[in-house]
Design goal:
alpha+beta; YefM-like fold; 3-stranded mixed β-sheet; 3 strands; 16% strand; elongated
């Protein structure tokens, strides 16, 4: 696939021609400013491939996170001898402790 570097100034002048080269010729246009790449014009087909790749990466990352989470949960459960945590009780006790501290700080 062909890649061409074009200054932003030229884009203003030749946008129609450059878009046709991208859309119909499969070219990728790298926009530069003061010689440094700033952005890329790609075909809709390339854009859709990029989006699909990003989506697949997100799904893979999610699956990896889920597997790590399940492994950690399994280790914690094993360490607790199969006994589940009572999250509601932990939250209730934490709230009560915060209230006690608040009351202590403000002499109530």
């Amino acid at each position: 696939m062909s890649e061409t570097h074009i200054s932003i100034g030229r884009i203003k002048r030749d946008i129609s021609e450059l878009l046709n080269r991208v859309a119909f010729g499969g070219e990728r246009i790298v926009l530069t400013s003061r010689g440094k790449p700033k952005a890329v014009i790609v075909s809709l087909e390339d854009y859709e491939r990029i989006q699909q790749a990003e989506e697949q990466t997100q799904i893979s990352n999610w699956k990896a996170w889920l597997a790590r989470n399940e492994a950690l949960s399994g280790r914690i459960l094993a360490e607790r001898g199969g006994e589940l945590l009572d999250v509601d009780a932990i939250l209730t006790e934490t709230r009560a402790e915060l209230e006690r501290r608040h009351d202590h700080l403000f002499d109530r």
